[in-house]
Automatic annotation (TrEMBL):
The lineage of its organism: Bacteria, Bacillati, Bacillota, Bacilli, Bacillales. It catalyses: dUTP + H2O = dUMP + diphosphate + H(+). Pfam families: dUTPase. It comes from Effusibacillus dendaii. This is dUTP diphosphatase. GO terms for molecular function: dUTP diphosphatase activity; magnesium ion binding. Residues 6-120 form the dUTPase-like domain. Belongs to the dUTPase family. It comes from the Bacteria.
Length: 121
């Protein structure tokens, strides 16, 4: 679902600056087996260089406050958020509860520890 700026007046994010923008929304997740993920909207990001400060926001199941988005202006010009402007997207996801074990070695694979562009070459 889209999250919109719940503000009375426009808020200007200065060039290379950041501002915390309220959404007016609070949620109660049904259990610790769910998480809310807040993503930047692709339109405002690609057209105006506005992104979330933490890339992806995580809403834990025990959080009860208002969802707020810290937006970062990556451009060299100011950008003004208008009241009701859609600024982010909220996705609810199930969480896998893993049984983590500390080990001395990992099982080998063909790929091994190669990373950062090592697949598909």
């Amino acid at each position: 679902m889209d999250l919109a700026a719940c503000i009375e007046e426009p808020v200007t994010i200065p060039a290379k600056g950041r501002r915390k923008i309220p959404t007016g929304i609070a949620i109660e997740l049904p259990s610790p087996q769910f998480v809310g993920l807040v993503f930047p909207r692709s339109g405002i990001s690609t057209k105006h260089g506005i992104n979330l400060a933490n890339s992806v926001g995580v809403i834990d199941s025990d959080y009860r406050g208002e969802i707020q988005c810290v937006l970062v202006n990556q451009e060299d010009t100011d950008y003004t958020i208008q009241p009701g402007e859609r600024i982010a997207q909220l996705v609810l996801m199930p969480v896998v509860q893993a049984d983590v074990q500390i080990v001395e070695e990992l099982n080998p694979t063909d790929r091994g520890s190669s990373g950062f562009g090592s697949t598909g070459s």
